[in-house]
Amino acid sequence: MADDVRGDMTLDEYEFPTSRLRRRIEDPERTPLVLIACGSFSPITFLHLRMFEMAADYARFNTQFEVVGAYLSCVGDAYKKTGLVKAEHRINMCTLAVQQSSWISVDPWEALHSEYLETAKVLDHFDHEINEVIGGVETPVGKKKCRIALLAGADLIQTMSTPGVWADKDIDYILRNFGAFIVERTGTDIDEALSTLQAWKDNIWVIQQLVQNDISSTKIRLFRRRDMSIRYLVPEQVVNYIEMHNLYDEDGAASTNSDKGKEKKAGESSGVASSSKG
Ligand SMILES: Nc1ncnc2c1ncn2[C@@H]1O[C@H](COP(=O)(O)OP(=O)(O)OP(=O)(O)O)[C@@H](O)[C@H]1O
Ligand SMILES: NC(=O)c1ccc[n+]([C@@H]2O[C@H](COP(=O)(O)O)[C@@H](O)[C@H]2O)c1
């Protein structure tokens, strides 16, 4: 049965989405892996979706893991990041974006909370649902617990060495118990980003982008404000949703926090310039 995931649902109506989670693997040598991408997804882009495919290929060719599922978890409105439209819209856009995927799900649990939830708590939630409630996955030698791992871009892992962004105990907790698949990102020096995380290097897997893709949500928002096309940068259904709900347009009515005033004047740069990533 398809999962019921709607941006306007409440926590009381919430059920953990399981329809795209594979329940069995055939190779007894492999460890089942579930990838969790935490982020704003304001809006989700094709690069966010590509991250899952890159990580699955990486895991298959370079590790003993076998991917059995993956989840997008949108941060809640309390995060108050620039350009964040309401969680309701971000959940809906993510749900539309993964409609064609057989293995990527959207879990609205984090975003349905009114308070901010640290990533360590979000990963604990997945561990609880997948390994305690469901009990892991079947293998020819009996049930195995899944490895739950964070899937993130290099800029996110870089913030782990920025003072005050992450609690030291959370970094240790996440990288010791879960680990992270990190996708290289233009503008982030991966060696520098990892230099302070050497204690957990065996739980950090770095994925090269073989086709460099520098899409960011910031650029999508900026294109919208300049009335430029965002088609073929985000899935078509997401383009339609953004247009139908007038998201990221000039007045920023649906935003929890606006990027207005952060961009350089049009013509000042050939690119897009409203954040360090943009
Ligand atoms: N072009 C990219 N290359 C590698 N990783 C990326 C890229 N775009 C997003 N990510 C990763 O996707 C995850 C979700 O990111 P987020 O929702 O903040 O997207 P973003 O495009 O960076 O957003 P914004 O532009 O609003 O800061 C993060 O781990 C981020 O590092
Ligand atoms: N202390 C923490 O747990 C912590 C700190 C910074 C970012 N994050 C997470 O990283 C993700 C991406 O954040 P940005 O959209 O700001 O890049 C979000 O899901 C956010 O919750 C968590």
TrEMBL record:
Its EC number is 2.7.7.1, 2.7.7.18. Keywords: ATP-binding, Mitochondrion, NAD, Nucleotide-binding, Nucleotidyltransferase, Pyridine nucleotide biosynthesis, Transferase. Its cofactor is Mg(2+). It is found in: Mitochondrion. Gene3D superfamilies: HUPs. GO terms for molecular function: ATP binding; nicotinamide-nucleotide adenylyltransferase activity; nicotinate-nucleotide adenylyltransferase activity. One of its GO terms (biological process) is NAD+ biosynthetic process. SUPFAM superfamilies: Nucleotidylyl transferase. GO terms for cellular component: mitochondrial matrix. Belongs to the eukaryotic NMN adenylyltransferase family. PANTHER family: NICOTINAMIDE MONONUCLEOTIDE ADENYLYLTRANSFERASE, NICOTINAMIDE-NUCLEOTIDE ADENYLYLTRANSFERASE. Homotetramer. Catalyzes the formation of NAD(+) from nicotinamide mononucleotide (NMN) and ATP. Can also use the deamidated form; nicotinic acid mononucleotide (NaMN) as substrate with the same efficiency. Can use triazofurin monophosphate (TrMP) as substrate. Can also use GTP and ITP as nucleotide donors. Also catalyzes the reverse reaction, i.e. the pyrophosphorolytic cleavage of NAD(+). For the pyrophosphorolytic activity, can use NAD(+), NADH, NaAD, nicotinic acid adenine dinucleotide phosphate (NHD), nicotinamide guanine dinucleotide (NGD) as substrates. This is Nicotinamide-nucleotide adenylyltransferase.
